[in-house]
C-alpha cells in the first residue's frame, strides 16, 4: 500500500462544520485515511509533502467541457452560439481525427491539472481516445460520447455510446464513469431522446445534455413543440428516475427551476462561456437558494477560452453580484463549494469533493507565499478572488501525485504542447 503524508498545511475540508485549520493529511492507497495534527503513520516508503505556506483543498471539478476543443481555442470568437457552432466549429469538427482528439484532450488535461482541476465531465467524439488520455494521465472524469439525433449518424451514435459505456464505465481503477450524451433538445428530437433514455436505463447510467442555453433555443423549441426545453424534457420523463447533468440552464422560469430541483438535476453553470457567447446570465443565486445542485464548468476552450476553474469561480462570484447589484450574493465559500464538493455531487461522485477519512484523495496544494495572496485574512476569499492557476503547487488524484512543484509526473508537457500545436494548426486548414 502506498502512503502519502501532507504535513503542517492549512486545510480547507469543505465539510461545513469546519472552516480551516493547520494540520496533516494521511493518504493510503487512493483514499484519505486520517486528517489531524502531528500524524505519524508507520507506513514504509511514505512520501512526505511539506505543507508549510500552502493551503490544501479538494481538487476542482469541471462539470462541463469538451476537452479536445482546446485545438479550436481562439479559432472562432465574438459570435453568438448558433453562428459560432454552424459557421466555425462544426465544419472544423467534421475533420477531427482520433489522434487530434487524443492530443487535444491531453492538452486540456495538462491545462486542467496545472490549474487545480482533478475531475472533469466531457462530452465529445472519439471518446476511446479521451478515455485513454484519462487513463494515462491519472485524472478523474465523467465521459459521454456526444450524440446528435438528426441525420445519418444518429443510430451510429447510439451504438457507439453503448459500446463506449460497456468498455469504460468504472475503468481506470474506477476513475472513469460514463454518461450518455444527447447533445441538446435542438439536435435530439423527442423520439431520439426516448431511445437514449431507454439505452441509459439498460446500461444503468445517467445523461449529460446542454439545456436552455440561449433565448434562441427556447424560442425555437417553443415554436416546434409548443413547450420550452425544460418542459419538453420533463414531458418526456427525461429527468425521472435517472441522474441528469444539464449544462447551462440559463433561461429558466421559476416553474422550470422547481422542476429541475424536484428531480435533483445536476446543473453545470458555465459563466464565462455564457458571457462570451452572450447567451445570458443563469439564475444561479435563485437556484442555489431554492436548493438546486449546482457545479461549475468551463465549457470548451473554444468558447471560454481557457479551462481554469480558479478564474471561473471569480467570474461566477463577480457576475452574479453585478447583475443582482447585491455584493452579498454568492459569497466566496459558496462559490468554492460549487467548484469542489457540489460539483462532485452534480457528477454523482459521492466520495469526491471533501477532505475527510474515506474520501478519495483528490487534493490540491496552493502556494500561499505569493504577493497577491498576502496577507491571509481569509484563505477562501484569497482563493476565489485573488489566486491564479500558477499558484497551484502540487496535485494529487486518486492518491497519486500527478503534479509536484509544478512539474508534471504523468505527462510529458513539452510533447503535449508540441503535438497539440501541430494538430491545431493542421485542423484549421484541412479540406
Ligand atoms: C456532440 S459532441 C458536443 C458538441 O457540442 C458542441 N458545443 C460546444 N460548446 C457548446 C455549447 O456551448 N452549446 C452547445 N454545443 C456546444 C461541440 O462543438 C460539439 O459539437
Ligand atoms: Zn458545452
TrEMBL record:
Residues 55-402 form the Amidohydrolase-related domain. Binds 1 zinc ion per subunit. Zn(2+) binds at residues 64, 66, 210, 299. Keywords: Hydrolase, Metal-binding, Zinc. SUPFAM superfamilies: Composite domain of metallo-dependent hydrolases, Metallo-dependent hydrolases. Its EC number is 3.5.4.28, 3.5.4.31. Substrate binds at residues 93, 145, 183, 213, 299. InterPro entries: Amidohydro-rel, Deaminase_MtaD/DadD, Metal-dep_hydrolase_composite, Metal_Hydrolase, MTA/SAH_deaminase. Pfam families: Amidohydro_1. It catalyses: S-adenosyl-L-homocysteine + H2O + H(+) = S-inosyl-L-homocysteine + NH4(+); S-methyl-5'-thioadenosine + H2O + H(+) = S-methyl-5'-thioinosine + NH4(+). One of its GO terms (molecular function) is S-adenosylhomocysteine deaminase activity. Gene3D superfamilies: Metal-dependent hydrolases (3.20.20.140), Urease, subunit C, domain 1 (2.30.40.10). CDD domains: ATZ_TRZ_like (cd01298). Its cofactor is Zn(2+). Transmembrane segments: none annotated. Belongs to the metallo-dependent hydrolases superfamily. MTA/SAH deaminase family. HAMAP family: MTA_SAH_deamin (MF_01281). PANTHER family: AMIDOHYDROLASE-RELATED DOMAIN-CONTAINING PROTEIN, AMINOHYDROLASE SSNA-RELATED. Catalyzes the deamination of 5-methylthioadenosine and S-adenosyl-L-homocysteine into 5-methylthioinosine and S-inosyl-L-homocysteine, respectively. Is also able to deaminate adenosine. This is 5-methylthioadenosine/S-adenosylhomocysteine deaminase. It comes from Thermanaerosceptrum fracticalcis.
Amino acid at each position: 500500500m502506498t502512503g502519502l503524508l501532507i504535513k503542517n498545511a492549512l486545510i480547507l475540508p469543505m465539510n461545513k462544520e469546519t472552516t480551516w485549520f493547520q494540520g496533516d493529511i494521511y493518504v493510503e492507497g487512493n483514499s484519505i485515511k486520517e486528517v489531524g495534527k502531528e500524524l505519524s503513520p508507520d507506513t514504509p516508503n511514505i512520501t512526505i509533502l511539506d505543507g508549510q505556506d500552502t493551503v490544501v483543498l479538494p481538487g476542482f471539478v469541471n462539470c462541463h467541457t469538451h476537452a479536445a476543443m482546446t485545438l479550436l481555442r481562439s479559432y472562432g470568437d465574438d459570435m453568438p452560439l448558433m453562428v459560432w457552432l454552424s459557421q466555425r466549429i462544426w465544419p472544423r469538427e467534421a475533420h477531427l481525427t482520433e489522434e487530434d482528439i487524443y492530443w487535444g484532450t491531453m492538452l486540456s488535461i495538462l491545462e486542467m491539472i496545472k490549474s487545480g482541476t482533478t475531475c472533469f465531465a466531457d462530452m465529445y467524439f472519439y471518446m476511446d481516445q479521451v478515455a485513454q488520455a484519462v487513463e494515462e494521465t491519472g485524472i478523474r472524469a465523467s465521459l459521454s460520447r456526444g450524440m446528435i439525433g438528426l441525420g445519418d449518424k444518429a443510430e451510429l451514435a447510439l451504438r457507439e455510446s453503448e459500446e463506449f459505456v460497456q468498455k469504460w464505465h468504472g475503468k481506470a481503477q474506477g476513475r472513469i464513469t460514463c454518461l450518455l450524451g444527447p447533445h441538446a433538445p435542438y439536435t435530439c428530437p423527442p423520439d431520439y431522446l426516448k431511445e437514449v433514455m431507454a439505452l441509459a436505463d439498460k446500461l444503468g447510467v445517467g445523461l449529460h445534455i446542454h439545456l436552455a442555453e440561449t433565448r434562441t433555443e427556447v424560442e425555437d423549441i417553443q415554436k416546434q413543440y409548443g413547450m420550452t426545453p425544460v418542459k419538453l424534457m420533463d414531458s418526456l420523463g427525461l429527468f425521472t428516475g435517472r441522474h441528469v447533468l444539464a449544462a447551462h440552464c440559463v433561461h429558466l422560469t421559476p416553474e422550470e427551476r422547481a422542476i429541475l430541483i424536484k428531480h435533483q438535476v445536476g446543473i453545470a453553470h458555465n459563466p464565462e462561456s455564457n458571457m462570451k457567447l452572450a447567451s445570458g446570465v443563469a439564475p444561479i443565486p435563485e437556484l442555489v437558494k431554492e436548493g438546486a445542485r449546482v457545479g461549475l464548468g468551463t465549457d470548451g476552450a473554444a468558447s471560454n477560452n481557457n479551462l481554469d476553474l480558479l478564474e471561473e469561480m471569480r467570474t461566477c462570484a463577480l457576475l452574479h453580484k453585478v447583475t443582482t447589484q447585491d455584493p452579498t450574493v454568492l459569497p466566496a465559500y459558496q462559490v468554492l463549494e460549487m467548484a469542489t464538493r457540489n460539483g462532485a455531487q452534480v457528477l454523482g461522485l459521492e466520495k469526491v469533493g471533501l477532505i475527510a477519512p474515506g474520501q478519495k484523495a483528490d487534493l490540491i496544494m496552493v502556494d500561499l507565499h505569493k504577493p497577491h495572496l498576502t496577507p491571509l485574512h481569509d484563505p477562501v476569499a484569497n482563493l476565489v478572488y485573488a489566486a491564479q492557476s500558477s499558484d497551484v503547487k502540487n496535485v494529487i488524484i486518486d492518491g497519486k501525485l500527478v503534479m509536484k512543484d509544478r512539474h508534471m509526473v504523468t505527462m510529458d508537457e513539452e510533447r503535449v504542447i508540441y503535438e497539440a500545436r501541430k494538430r491545431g494548426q493542421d485542423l484549421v486548414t484541412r479540406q
